[in-house]
């Protein structure tokens, strides 16, 4: 019976300890938006929108953003990564990287000198095979 009050006391003390050291999500969200995101926006403007999809150009800035969110989480006794960080990075990707391909390189059509043979050659082979089949079938009619 004495075990029950001891467990209850441990639970109450643990709850107060966790509540005293818990992450302040509102402060954390505000700080990553006003410190980390502002610096990231300045760096991305410096890079220029044309190069946002070039991973070699953005990897340093993106790494700084990641480290900034982790450092602020550590200072505020927040777990990292957490729900706020996930939502924050999804918003960053929607704003800056939504038009980028998964490989990090902008996709574009090949030059016409490469593209045209890949289009014209199958068309010519199809026409040639059709002519050959028709010619062969007419030629065999006279033999029988």
What class do helices, strands and sheet pairing give? mainly alpha
Number of strands: 0
Give the overall silhouette: rod-shaped
Rounded average pLDDT: 80
Strand content: under 5%
Helix share, percent: over 70%
Summarize the structure.
The protein is mainly α and about 140 residues long. The chain has five helices and no strands.
Topology:
Elements: H1 3-21, H2 25-47, H3 55-75, H4 83-96, H5 112-143
Helix pairs in contact: 2-3, 2-4
Question: Can you tell me about this structure?
Answer:
- The chain has 144 residues and is mostly helical.
- 76% of the residues lie in helices and 0% in strands.
- It contains five helices and no strands.
- 10% of the residues are buried.
- The model is unreliable at 7-20 (pLDDT under 50).
